[in-house]
Design goal:
The complex is a heterodimer of chains A (about 170) and B (about 750).
Chain A (H helix, E strand, L loop, with lengths): L1 H8 L1 H7 L8 E9 L2 E6 L3 E6 L13 E7 L2 E7 H5 L11 E6 L5 E6 L1 E9 L4 E2 L7 E7 L2 E6 L1 H9 L6
Parallel strand pairs in A: 2-11, 5-7
Antiparallel strand pairs in A: 1-2, 1-8, 3-6, 4-5, 6-7, 9-10, 10-11
Chain B lengths: L1 H26 L5 H20 L3 H18 L7 H21 L7 H14 L10 H4 L2 H9 L14 H4 L6 E8 L1 H5 L4 H14 L5 E5 L17 E7 L4 H7 L7 E8 L10 H8 L8 H9 L2 H4 L15 H8 L16 H9 L7 H27 L6 H25 E3 L1 H18 L3 E6 L4 E3 H22 L3 H6 L6 E10 L2 E8 L6 H10 L11 H7 L21 H10 L3 E7 L3 E9 L4 E9 L2 E6 L3 E6 L5 E3 L5 E5 L2 E7 H4 L15 E6 L5 E6 L1 E9 L13 E6 L5 E5 L1 H24 L1
Parallel strand pairs in B: 6-8, 13-22, 17-19
Antiparallel strand pairs in B: 1-3, 1-4, 2-3, 5-7, 8-9, 9-11, 10-11, 12-13, 12-20, 14-18, 15-16, 16-17, 18-19, 21-22
Helix pairs in contact in B: 1-2, 1-4, 2-3, 3-4, 3-5, 4-5, 7-10, 17-18, 19-20, 20-24, 22-23
The chains are: A alpha+beta (about 170), B alpha+beta (about 750).
Chain lengths: ~170, ~750
Amino acid sequence: MTMLSINQETKMSEQLTTREGADTASVKMIVFAVGAQEYCIPILSVREIRGFEKTTTLPFAPAYVCGAINLRGIILTVIDLAAYLNIPPELENSRRVVIIVESRAGVVYGLLVDRVIDLADISTGDIQPTSDEGACLHGLVLIENRMIGILKLDTVVKHLVGESSKE
Amino acid sequence: MDEILEIFFQECDEQLQELETGLAALAADRAEDDTVNAVFRAVHSIKGGAASFGLQNLVRFSHVYENSLDGVRSDRIQPTKEIIAVFLKSMDVLSDLVVEARGGASVDAQRVDESLTELKVVSGEAPAATSSPAASFDPAESEAEAFSPVPFEFEPVAFDFGDDFAEPASARKIVTFHPHDAMYGCGDDARNILVALTALAHDKGDTAQVECLTEALPAFHDLLPASSYLTWRVALPDSVAESEIRDAFDWVVDSCDFTLESDRAVTETTNSDASDEADAFFDAPASISEDTIQAMVAQSAGQALSRGASLPTTDRRLTAEAFLDDLAPPATIQRDEEPIALTGATVARKAEAASIRVDLSRVDDLMDLVGELVIAQAAVQSLCQKAGTSGHHELMQGIEGMQTLTRDIQDAVMSVRAQPVRSVFQRMQRVVREASSMTQKAVKLVLEGEDTEVDRTLIEKLAAPLTHMLRNAVDHGIEKTEDRIAAGKSPEGCITLSAEHRSGRILITIKDDGAGVNHKRVFETAVKRGIIAPDATLSEDEINNLIFTPGFSTASEVSDLSGRGVGMDVVKQAIMSLGGRIVISSVAGKGSTFSLSLPLTLAILDGMLISADETTMVIPISAVSEAIIVSQSDVYSLPDGTRIISKRGECIPLLPLGVTLGLAGARVRDTLEGAVVLVVENESGSRAALIVDEICGQMQVVIKSMERNYRHIFGVSAATILGDGSVALILDVSALIAAALSQTENKAALGVSELVN
């Protein structure tokens, strides 16, 4: 199940970066830090990365929704990943950035992270599924002895637009 | 294939509109020569397109329709009111058939047959009319045939050359035409027209004189074999109708220049020797290959005839160019003042001005980008001011220039989205037609200002309320025919639907010449429905406005059409939700007028900028009825702490905006002395007073959806981007009022029950 959905999510990236063999498809991921923990998402779902700016607070929003920003005429919401994942954020961080992500259904939103670390090719075969807790993560992967969580973007969107919505 | 089909359907819509316009003109007796042709062409194009897609129902119907129209076109049938009514009815069937072909609801076969029969009656009960001898002489018909690939047979045409021209003829019509290269290019030939024109003359038992004007012919070595140089001049007997001549040019109108003169004086011609002519023609350097000559001669059968043609004086003739000059600029052409000669080029120019199809999303993208441009420009400006460059006169000038430009661009993009209200207005013709036939009343709808442009978002939302109002006007406004005659009015009722721009808004009025609002009956009904007290004294205006009250209907009998009691209040709500207002005025016995005032666009909103608990928000100005500075003595607290404010005897629930929206750091103030509250009103007239910190100003804001990338938020209808690039929320006043009311009512009820206990 876990494998299946990550395959869906990264279908495009697979087509571009597959190195032989369906089991060990390789996906280019962007790795970032939230607090002390590192996470990654497929790079092809990323639209752009921009500095964090003041957001407009939204009424009745969950705690992890920072607010709305204007991206060249499109209004989108920024999610504070630290709050979303229940991690204490780095204090006094001026390098905080917003990764703008576009879902397959075209919903655009921002992920507030502490800093972007690097890009990595991750073989789908190396992903260790987690116990499906809240389904925040697809699984974990080990790169150079760092444990990196693979964020499940579908769940993020579902939280954002509400269950009954387009996703 | 689907794409092409889609284009066909779009074209069908356009043709149907054309048809409607044309028939309306015929009905209103302001038809021009070309109107019938336009109507005919519209049906013909639909038929042609439908045939190529194999849409049999459509083809069958449009064929019969076309035949009947052809009768009118060839003056066999006089378009009486009844016949036009049949045409209009058939048009509705045709448009339904188009919808059916598009995959919509299927059309009642009986209705189609009924219309078909009526059409056949119009065309003289002869479905074979097209093959009748009369029709075969119809020049346009033969042209139409020539248009389809028929086997080409050479058929010698008898020309009368120069010397015949000198005969003192009776008044004649002189047709001068010059085919463009394009006409030969698409396989047509001047010969076809000459044949058609001579046939016209023969019809009237006369002959046509054809001459060829060769003065445009260059010297032989400059001659391009594929170019058209010759101009033809045909003298026809005066008995040939102008429309017949125009028909002959119907298919080539944009590929030739053509002028029509009525020449009462006897034509002067200089008889030049044909052989001289030929000599001049070949007065060119000697080395001409056989091929060149052949190519040149083969250029067209018509041009090859030039050698025998005579050369008349040229100065008396109005050339196509001269006409073009006369007509320029095209925008100033008044249809009815137009000179008799309409050059093909002018027609083509008009067509070019028509339109292009652009995907709406592209225009929306453009809008977004322009919005950003405005913001970026404002940012540059404020940065420059901050950096203390105000001394740099030239820099500031440049920035100001940019500001003007960006505003102009914004306006221009808005105008791209604008569309004339014609499309929705014309649909109303059908509404009135159906409503009047259902109520057995004769009603005509007069449209005015159909060219008034509004944003297309609005156009789409206008149809429903307008339909409702027009049905109401037919059903309740216009009296029965007997009553009208008794009142000394014309038996036919008249409803005028007009649109105009007024101070940045669009004003739509629906005016009927019916009986007007029956104040007594309205009052009685309102009392009966418990809307007002029996002893209430109301002004005329107040009585008029009663018809907008929910659950009000004066029609004593509930008709199919309207009068189910959900009439005008629904209209009012629809109009108000578009940010509009509706006003009624009525004169007993003379009729009533409904005026709708609407914003020009739904993409932009006049907003009031307010701040509450450090958040800037926008409230639609149309919802704000007043701003009050509170004096504590007007504020009353309910037992549970909710507060109401009394204003002119009315109690309005107070709503601390920040708290209601759950903004962080929002707090309830102890005293409201000196606080600013905005009284807002929703569609149904309920009110609430919003406590805000400050009113920051008023501005036009571009409406952006929140739901596109997020979910619906209670109390927020949309968002916008302010001048500094930040996001501001647009408040959903109706929701806030509903919340305020339920809160107060619940708590008041609770309070009362506590007191009782």
